[in-house]
């Protein structure tokens, strides 16, 4: 994500998954994420995973002077049963 980027409030398409962000290149300051009513600064760390339910409204600010690079992986929500996973389309 380039410096100065703001991803406006939005929601993911389903609550059947959790979204994982693996920090690859993370500036020391200037990265924020809001999910529901919680805004957190510098939640991303290089080599660590941030997990959240993107079916809730969320937004991101990239106010650092350099870019932020994350690897995004979607996984099944842990509360889904095996049967539910089998009847849903892949994520």
From TrEMBL:
SUPFAM superfamilies per the UniProt record, alphabetical: Clavaminate synthase-like
Gene Ontology MF: a single term: peptidyl-aspartic acid 3-dioxygenase activity
Pfam families: Asp_Arg_Hydrox (PF05118)
A cellular component annotation (GO) from this entry: endoplasmic reticulum
The Aspartyl/asparaginy/proline hydroxylase domain, residue ranges: 1-78
Membership in a protein family: Belongs to the aspartyl/asparaginyl beta-hydroxylase family.
Protein name: Aspartyl/asparaginyl beta-hydroxylase-like
Organism: Acanthochromis polyacanthus (spiny chromis)
